[in-house]
Amino acid sequence: MATGSTASSGTDPQDPREPGEAADAPTPGESGADEAVHDPARRAFFFQFGKQAASAVGQVAGMADVVGRTSSALAGELLGLDEPEAPTPKPAFVRSGVAAEPVTSAAAPAAEHTYRSAYRLTDEGLVILDQRRVPEALDEVVAVRGSDVAYYLRLGVARGGPLMAQLAAYGMWLTAAERADQPAELRRVELRRTEQALTDARPSSRLLAVAVERMRAATVGFGESSPGAEVAAALRAEADAIAAEVTASEATLASRLEAALPQPEGRPLTLLLHGGQGSLIAGQLGAGLTALGRMREAGRDLRVFLAEGRPFMDGARLASWELRQSGIEHKIVPDAGCAWLLERTAFDAVIIRGEWVAANGDTGALVGARGLAQLVAAADAEEGGPRFVTVAPSAAYDAGTPDGSAIPTELRPSRELATFLAGTPIRASDALVPATDVIPAELIDVHLTDDEAVG
Q1: Could you give the angle at the alpha carbon of 376 between the alpha carbons of 372 and 380, nearest 5°?
Q2: Candidates 4.10.1110.10, 3.40.50.1450, 1.20.120.420, 1.20.120.230; correct CATH number of 22-249?
Q3: Tens-digit pLDDT profile for residues 107-141
Q4: Most buried residue among 256, 279, 405, 415 by CB atoms closer than 10 A?
């Protein structure tokens, strides 16, 4: 498998690591050549799985079979454990004051017909698609312990609450497995340290925090005499359960989104999307992309626009790539042009993903979402204006967060602004890069979740 990111040294002022963390930070090493294009049958499996899962959620018995298989067998089916992998060296580590060697990507350009899952498990560890390189290349990084996962999340290798929740869960398991032969107290200390590193990596993700809480709860009941292998096995089972439940949740959300969107007569269903809608933010399948694909297959006429949520270029680089691979035609509009577009186009809905939902309905989401909500609210003054729709799994709802003022927000490293905007040199003091917005509940027309009793 190819790895194509270069970890920065501990002296980089824009390195996201805290002082003293460098010794645990992996840098992807060069590996043997691997085909960037997976077997088309694998892509077909995920496409068919999404269709079947989204269809099954209407019948509890149908989805029960999918959700119930939360064992390693399900993880193997979903994550490609049955695929043979070329030997891959474990990641090297950056020591304080030692610069990492540059890595040349061996991955082929991400052509329109390629497919690669957002993550998968191999004998070497947790293999994560490096989203900083998509679509130019399908590079991957390998995590062999939870601190590796935290490091990669802080770098922006993977984004999206559902995906990060699964990565964090498997990261906890990796740490437990690595420390299985150590005394119980040392294992507990390392697991607590890993939990903190993971939650600190992306503090604005409710789903990540919930996953870490669940993994911690899975260790309750193990005492000093409990074998480390048993603790690791319990964490692996819980991580598998989280992965299965996220997939089932996305399938449910897809069906509810499809049902919630109108069927206008005589014209296409016109949508404006903001942020990722597919597996790059959700893991195995994404609700938005699954819903759109099902509607297109059913013969519904779609007119799709995609807001570019700079500076990470979530729209033009990632969401657009997934839409193209699914055969969904669309146009990209810069976020600065959305007001212009809404003024000239009759939209049916603006759709965003919710990352953190407060008790009063205020919702944390990808930065730029609040501005869109305000634009839609202004358009609603006219008859037939678009609806503002948020899609969020029930795990994103937090009764302990009273309102939006208590939702954690996040600033990303200033280098992201320079990296993804044509390489323009920007000094750290010149850049302010918020990752999230908080949308007031009164600006949201429709909250969609996988549990009707929530929200």
Answers
A1: 170
A2: 1.20.120.420
A3: 344 444 455 689 999 999 999 999 988 888 899 99
A4: 279
